[in-house]
């Protein structure tokens, strides 16, 4: 169950970005999780909620975009969904010497939705809330 | 005002960065790290104890770090080999992470260590996601665990650079189907070598040491298909071996686990650590 470690890494990275971007609250985090990333999305969602507590991400929604694992064989120029458990040998030639994984190992933060902190000495016109 | 910010960051970027730095630092000190993963009870410690003893007999400077949730039992067993051993207690954490390993090595890893064996927490799920800066990742499975183990834990077996079957002395009694096991390994990790070992029957003992020494001497370790996902705009592979020239750097994010580069020529300052054959233990 390393989803807690993963959740804490996500929260840590978003916290850093939010601090740098002077965000006051993070509302939503969109994550890309490949089939072969070794992460269980439900477990991650549970841990994410706990990891967000007491941070600028408190109450933030986690949106997980799963990515199907696929590979291609340079010899046969074919691509296939490797499935789960994955079959990484080419279904056409049966070999794997020229097989390349195209997708499936993703574990990325795609984007974050946050609220900007009101600027301290802004010269701009005040911007109305548009959450 | 609410706004959407494109972060595009690999979640494990920090661990992967720490692993790359550790790999480079240890390479500059002449140390090769071997990361051992398996289920609890697969015989990691028994095999490792034999390999460490063998290394000592052959005069190869090796060390071992073993991670468990609790107890120092494994370190005591490994220390019987007479090589420097350190027990890390993870206090419940199911895996090791690269920065954690780096901290434990700091001030402990004896100078001149050629091979450092890291016995990861017994678990085939979580440790698979964390690069520890190893040059060789080994996954072990005992014959009692079933031929379909590689299919049940595809990430662990899919990222292995060497697969070791243990306890082959009881293979017949438990009706271990070697051909089926090999086929399942090849399905998730085509081309990876599978070694058969039995500490009790003295089968295959020393092979792990040989393979680790070979990688330490520059032999390219197996590059699993799963470890090298194509990146957009990526026109070259990321091998486990040393295929990049000195100074080759990547400043973009990598979201795959294994990303081994050649770091020769990088100076990471004077080494630290002194030989201490006694069992060290740290939380």
From TrEMBL, chain A:
- Binding positions for Ni(2+)? 2
Q: Which residues bind Zn(2+)?
A: 73, 76, 90, 93
Pfam annotation, one family: HypA
Q: InterPro entries annotated for this entry?
A: HypA/HybF
Sequence intervals crossing the membrane: none
Q: Keyword Metal-binding: yes or no? A: yes
- Organism's domain of life? Bacteria
Which keywords fit this entry according to its UniProt record? Metal-binding, Nickel, Zinc
An example GO BP is:
protein maturation
**Per its record, what are the GO molecular function terms?**
nickel cation binding; zinc ion binding
Function, as annotated, reads:
Involved in the maturation of [NiFe] hydrogenases. Required for nickel insertion into the metal center of the hydrogenase.
The similarity annotation says: Belongs to the HypA/HybF family.
Per its record, how is this protein called by name? Hydrogenase maturation factor HypA
* Protein source organism: Streptomyces lavendulae subsp. lavendulae
Gene behind the chain: hypA
From TrEMBL, chain B:
The alphabetized UniProt keywords are: GTP-binding, Hydrolase, Metal-binding, Nickel, Nucleotide-binding, Zinc
Q: Which GO terms describe its molecular function?
A: GTP binding; GTPase activity; nickel cation binding; zinc ion binding
- Where do Basic and acidic residues bias regions lie? 229-275
Region of interest: Disordered: 227-283
Per the record, the coiled-coil ranges are: none
User: An example of a Gene Ontology BP annotation on this entry?
Assistant: protein maturation
Q: Which PANTHER family match?
A: HYDROGENASE MATURATION FACTOR HYPB, HYDROGENASE PROTEIN ASSEMBLY PROTEIN, NICKEL CHAPERONE
Q: Which family does it belong to?
A: Belongs to the SIMIBI class G3E GTPase family. HypB/HupM subfamily.
The molecule here is called: Hydrogenase isoenzymes nickel incorporation protein HypB
Q: Which organism is it from?
A: Streptomyces lavendulae subsp. lavendulae
List the top taxonomic levels of the source. Bacteria, Bacillati, Actinomycetota, Actinomycetes, Kitasatosporales
Per the record, the gene is: hypB
């Amino acid at each position: 169950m390393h989803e807690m470690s993963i959740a804490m890494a996500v929260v840590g990275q978003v916290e850093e970005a939010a601090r740098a971007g002077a965000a006051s609250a993070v509302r939503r985090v969109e994550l890309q999780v490949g089939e072969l990333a070794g992460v269980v999305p439900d477990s991650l969602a549970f841990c994410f909620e706990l990891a967000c507590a007491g941070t600028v991400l408190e109450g933030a929604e986690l949106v997980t975009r799963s990515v199907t694992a696929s590979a291609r064989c340079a010899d046969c120029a074919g691509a296939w969904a490797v499935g789960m458990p994955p079959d990484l040998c080419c279904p056409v030639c049966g070999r794997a010497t020229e097989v390349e994984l195209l997708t499936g190992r993703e574990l990325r933060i795609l984007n974050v939705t946050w609220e900007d902190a009101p600027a301290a000495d802004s010269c701009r016109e005040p911007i109305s809330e548009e959450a | 005002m609410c706004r959407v910010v494109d972060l595009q960051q690999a979640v494990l970027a920090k661990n992967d960065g720490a692993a790359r730095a550790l790999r480079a630092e240890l390479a500059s000190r002449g140390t090769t790290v071997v990361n051992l993963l398996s289920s609890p009870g697969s015989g990691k410690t028994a095999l490792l104890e034999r390999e460490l003893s063998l290394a000592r007999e052959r005069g190869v400077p090796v060390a071992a770090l073993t991670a468990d949730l609790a107890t120092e039992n494994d370190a005591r067993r490994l220390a019987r080999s007479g090589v420097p051993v350190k027990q890390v207690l993870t206090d419940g954490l199911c895996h090791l992470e690269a920065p954690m390993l780096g901290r434990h090595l700091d001030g402990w890893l004896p100078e001149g260590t050629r091979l450092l064996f890291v016995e990861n927490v017994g678990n085939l799920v979580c440790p698979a996601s964390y690069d520890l800066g190893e040059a060789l990742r080994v996954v072990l499975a005992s014959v009692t665990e079933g031929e379909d183990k590689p299919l049940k834990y595809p990430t662990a077996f899919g990222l292995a650079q060497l697969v070791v079957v243990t306890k082959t002395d009881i293979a017949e009694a438990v009706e271990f189907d070697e051909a089926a096991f090999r086929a399942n390994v090849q399905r998730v990790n085509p081309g990876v070598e599978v070694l058969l070992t039995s500490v009790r029957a003295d089968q295959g003992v020393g092979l792990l040491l040989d393979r680790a020494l070979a990688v330490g001497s520059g032999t390219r370790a197996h590059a699993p298909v799963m470890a090298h996902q194509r990146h957009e705009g990526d026109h070259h592979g990321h091998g486990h071996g040393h295929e990049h020239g000195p100074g080759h750097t990547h400043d973009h994010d990598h979201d795959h686990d294994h990303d081994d580069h050649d770091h020769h020529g990088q100076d990471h300052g004077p080494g630290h650590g002194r030989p201490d054959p006694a069992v060290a233990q740290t939380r």
